[in-house]
């Protein structure tokens, strides 16, 4: 009993001592979020769900924007010698001028006072589109002399399509400088703006520099692209027969080389095409017809020089960039 009394008294003494120590300690509770944050976040999420996201703002309407400096930086960033007046004109679309004119008239300004003394990019866009089409056609004929006219037109049409051109334009920062009535800039407006930039570069630096610009930014989009992804051929075997007839070569003979899983739901056939007892190409397929068509496509790629193991495109820089380095090395 005495031992129990001693234990209880010791525990009581320890508790009193701890209370005296804790009175001198100030505890501050820190919350990760304020109490009002939950209700505020809930209301903002509900408002966003009802009203939808806010309309996008063009970069020119955001703070810290100097249009003249941005245009100069665009020219410097691409290492091109643009005329600033022509480059600014290339970014002005007719839809922007029309929308700005209507906005000023809606504010009550007179017609003569609200007139904008700016030129649109219609002429530059037309000039750039003509030069781009001509340059890309000549480039395809030079690099693929065996390719027929339909193939050249398909490759050129793919490079100048709205999907490819707008992808390049957005990655070059042209969308932020484009003066358009809508935001974000529509694909057709961005496409015409890019062609206007090409026209401005042609008038500023000449055909040679513009050709290098197109080679570096548009032709490079062909890397990794298959020929028949751009050129739709309905009857590859018929086209192969036509090409071999032009070259006075024997007609192709399809033969089954090997097969696997013919009695399963996933069969695989390999068909080879022979001409004058020589193997032209072979291709796989789930059916004999599909394998024969794939073999014909492989043979056409070899005839046109667009096969996978072809020589890489020449994207080397101009000689003028190497000249100062050669002179500096030779002077040592």
UniProtKB/TrEMBL annotation:
<dbReference type="InterPro" id="IPR055189">
    <property type="entry name" value="RM44_endonuclase"/>
</dbReference>
<keyword id="KW-0689">Ribosomal protein</keyword>
<comment type="function">
    <text>Component of the 39S subunit of mitochondrial ribosome. May have a function in the assembly/stability of nascent mitochondrial polypeptides exiting the ribosome.</text>
</comment>
<keyword id="KW-0809">Transit peptide</keyword>
<dbReference type="GO" id="GO:0005762">
    <property type="term" value="C:mitochondrial large ribosomal subunit"/>
</dbReference>
<dbReference type="Pfam" id="PF22892">
    <property type="entry name" value="DSRM_MRPL44"/>
</dbReference>
<feature type="domain" description="Large ribosomal subunit protein mL44 endonuclease">
    <location>
        <begin position="66"/>
        <end position="201"/>
    </location>
</feature>
<dbReference type="GO" id="GO:0003725">
    <property type="term" value="F:double-stranded RNA binding"/>
</dbReference>
<dbReference type="InterPro" id="IPR036389">
    <property type="entry name" value="RNase_III_sf"/>
</dbReference>
<keyword id="KW-0687">Ribonucleoprotein</keyword>
<dbReference type="GO" id="GO:0070125">
    <property type="term" value="P:mitochondrial translational elongation"/>
</dbReference>
<dbReference type="GO" id="GO:0006396">
    <property type="term" value="P:RNA processing"/>
</dbReference>
<dbReference type="GO" id="GO:0005743">
    <property type="term" value="C:mitochondrial inner membrane"/>
</dbReference>
<dbReference type="GO" id="GO:0070877">
    <property type="term" value="C:microprocessor complex"/>
</dbReference>
<keyword id="KW-0255">Endonuclease</keyword>
<dbReference type="InterPro" id="IPR044444">
    <property type="entry name" value="Ribosomal_mL44_DSRM_metazoa"/>
</dbReference>
<feature type="domain" description="Large ribosomal subunit protein mL44 dsRNA binding">
    <location>
        <begin position="231"/>
        <end position="319"/>
    </location>
</feature>
<dbReference type="GO" id="GO:0004525">
    <property type="term" value="F:ribonuclease III activity"/>
</dbReference>
<keyword id="KW-0694">RNA-binding</keyword>
<protein>
    <recommendedName>
        <fullName>Large ribosomal subunit protein mL44</fullName>
    </recommendedName>
</protein>
<dbReference type="Pfam" id="PF22935">
    <property type="entry name" value="RM44_endonuclase"/>
</dbReference>
<keyword id="KW-0496">Mitochondrion</keyword>
<comment type="similarity">
    <text>Belongs to the ribonuclease III family. Mitochondrion-specific ribosomal protein mL44 subfamily.</text>
</comment>
<keyword id="KW-0540">Nuclease</keyword>
<keyword id="KW-0378">Hydrolase</keyword>
């Amino acid at each position: 009993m005495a031992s129990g009394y001693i234990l209880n008294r010791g525990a009581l003494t320890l508790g009193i001592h701890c209370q005296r120590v804790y009175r001198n300690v100030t505890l501050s509770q820190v919350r990760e979020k304020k109490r009002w944050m939950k209700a505020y976040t809930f209301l903002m999420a509900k408002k966003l769900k009802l009203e939808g996201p806010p309309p996008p703002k063009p970069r020119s309407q955001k703070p810290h924007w100097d249009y003249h400096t941005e245009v100069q930086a665009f020219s410097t960033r691409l290492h091109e010698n643009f005329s600033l007046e022509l480059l600014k004109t290339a970014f002005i679309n007719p839809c922007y001028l029309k929308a700005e004119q209507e906005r000023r008239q809606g504010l009550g300004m007179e017609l003569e006072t609200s007139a904008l003394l700016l030129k649109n990019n219609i002429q530059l866009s037309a000039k750039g589109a003509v030069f781009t089409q001509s340059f890309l056609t000549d480039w395809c004929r030079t690099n693929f002399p065996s390719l027929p006219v339909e193939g050249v037109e398909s490759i050129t049409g793919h490079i100048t399509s709205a999907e490819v051109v707008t992808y390049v334009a957005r990655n070059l920062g042209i969308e932020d400088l484009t003066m358009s009535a809508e935001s974000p800039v529509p694909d057709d407006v961005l496409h015409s703006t890019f062609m206007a930039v090409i026209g401005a570069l042609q008038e500023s630096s000449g055909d040679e520099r513009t050709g290098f610009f197109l080679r570096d930014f548009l032709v490079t989009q062909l890397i990794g692209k298959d020929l028949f992804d751009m050129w739709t051929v309905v009857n590859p075997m018929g086209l192969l027969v036509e090409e071999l007839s032009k070259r006075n070569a024997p007609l192709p003979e399809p033969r089954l080389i090997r097969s696997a899983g013919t009695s399963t739901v996933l069969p695989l056939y390999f068909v080879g095409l022979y001409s004058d007892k020589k193997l032209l190409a072979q291709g796989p397929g789930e059916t004999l017809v599909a394998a024969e068509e794939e073999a014909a496509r492989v043979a056409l790629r070899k005839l046109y020089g667009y096969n996978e193991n072809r020589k890489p495109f020449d994207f080397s820089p101009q000689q003028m960039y190497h000249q100062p380095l050669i002179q500096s090395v030779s002077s040592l």
